TrEMBL record:
This is Sulfurtransferase complex subunit TusB. GO terms for molecular function: transferase activity. Keywords: Transferase. GO terms for cellular component: sulfurtransferase complex. The keyword Transferase applies. Gene3D superfamilies: DsrEFH-like. Pfam families: DsrH (PF04077). SUPFAM superfamilies: DsrEFH-like. One of its GO terms (biological process) is tRNA wobble position uridine thiolation. The keyword Transferase applies.
Length: 96
C-alpha cells in the first residue's frame, strides 16, 4: 500500500498514525506540508528510521518550501514521474 502524508507532522496525529499502520511492504510518500517530516536532524527522523520503511518526499513540494537542501539521507527525493511510478506499483493508497 502507498501511504501519502499530506499534512505537517506538527498538525494532529496523521504522521504518527501513518507510521504506525504502514506495513513492511508499504511505501510512504511525504508531500505538500508532509515534507516537513523529511528534514534532517528533526524530531521525526528517529521515528522514521525505526520503521524500516521506504520513505519518499516529493521534490517539487520540498523546493516550494525551501527544504530541498535539508532532507535527511534516509529519505528518497522523487519528482512527479517518481510519484506516478509509486502509484502504479501499489494497487491501494491511503491519504493521511
Amino acid at each position: 500500500m502507498l501511504h501519502t502524508l499530506h499534512s505537517s507532522p506538527f498538525n494532529g496525529a496523521a504522521f504518527t498514525n501513518c507510521l504506525r499502520y504502514a506495513q513492511p511492504q508499504s511505501d510512504i510518500l511525504l508531500l505538500e506540508d508532509g515534507v516537513i517530516a523529511a528534514i534532517k536532524n528533526s524530531v521525526w527522523q528517529q521515528q522514521i528510521k525505526n520503521t524500516g520503511l521506504k520513505i519518499y518526499a516529493l521534490k517539487e513540494d520540498l523546493e516550494a518550501r525551501g527544504l530541498l537542501e535539508q532532507v535527511a539521507k534516509n529519505i528518497k527525493v522523487i519528482d512527479i514521474k517518481g510519484f506516478i511510478s509509486l502509484t502504479e506499483r501499489h494497487d491501494k493508497q491511503l491519504k493521511w
